[in-house]
Automatic annotation (TrEMBL), chain A:
Protein source organism: Scylla paramamosain
GO biological process: cellular response to amino acid stimulus; cholesterol homeostasis; endosomal transport; lysosome organization; positive regulation of MAPK cascade; positive regulation of TOR signaling; regulation of receptor recycling
MF (Gene Ontology): guanyl-nucleotide exchange factor activity; molecular adaptor activity
Family: Belongs to the LAMTOR1 family.
Bilayer topology: Lipid-anchor
The keyword Ribosomal protein is annotated on this UniProt entry: no
Entry protein name: Ragulator complex protein LAMTOR1
GO terms for cellular component: late endosome membrane; lysosomal membrane; membrane raft; Ragulator complex
InterPro entries, alphabetized: LAMTOR1/MEH1
From TrEMBL, chain B:
Name of the protein described by the UniProt record: Late endosomal/lysosomal adaptor and MAPK and MTOR activator 5
Keywords, ordered alphabetically: Cytoplasm, Lysosome
Sections of the chain in a coiled coil: none
Localization terms from the record: Cytoplasm; Lysosome
The keyword Transferase belongs to this UniProt entry's keyword annotation: no
Predominant localisation class: cytoplasm
rRNA-binding as UniProt keyword: no
Organism: Scylla paramamosain (Mud crab)
Gene Ontology terms describing biological process: cellular response to amino acid stimulus; negative regulation of apoptotic process; positive regulation of TORC1 signaling
Molecular function as annotated in GO: guanyl-nucleotide exchange factor activity
Family: Belongs to the LAMTOR5 family.
One GO term describing the cellular component: lysosome
Transmembrane intervals: none
Amino acid sequence: MGCCCSTEQENLSQDGEVNERTRLLNDPVSNTYQVTASSNDYGNHYSTSATKKSDDHSVLNQILQHTASSIIDVGALECHTLEQHEYIERVRTYNQRVNAIPQVKTSNKRHHEVQLLYDTPATERVLSAQPISLADFNMMITASQKVVAAVAQIRVEHKEDLVVPFGIP
Amino acid sequence: MEGAHSTGVSGVLCADHKGLCLGVRGKASNASSGTVAALAERVAMLEPGSLDPVILLESDNSQCLIHRNSGITLAVYKSPETS
């Protein structure tokens, strides 16, 4: 965790090498003379115009160097012409890979419309089949009525007493 | 239960309102009593106020009819009619 304030002395690096304690920003409250800030703030053009020009030149050179090192010249690259047989081979390979993926039948509907049961073939035949035959329906009704009647007739037969007094004198 | 055996029934199961298996015959398993009772209860909520429906579960080679009456759920397993 970071530390906002502590009584420990700051262990600045002795050698001036960069470690985790080196300042990234200039100390704003210190009294050290800051060359770059003062010359920009006070606009002292007369004495610093020459230095400013050289600064601009160096900055420009830096930008040019950076661009030159990171530029990719497409026109100068080797052109990879595809031989005819290689082209045909690649077409065949790609088609094989595409066909190997299981196809999802998407109709012309928009992408976000919900499509239910799209993987069931002949959905209309399944859904329009007769739901339940009348004989089965009637059989269930009568059977369940018989079951209810039978359950209602469950009785407890009292044969013996559960609690038996022992003859302890 | 014995009367239903004549019409191609392969199994019968009875469950009470809490899913306790009251009786099982044939290929029905008493482990499915809770599922059958819960299914009947849920399906009855589809049309509140109407009579308890008869549920038909169909697969390729068998059917399962479920009906709840006065809290007792009856499940009948059938093979499809060959005639």
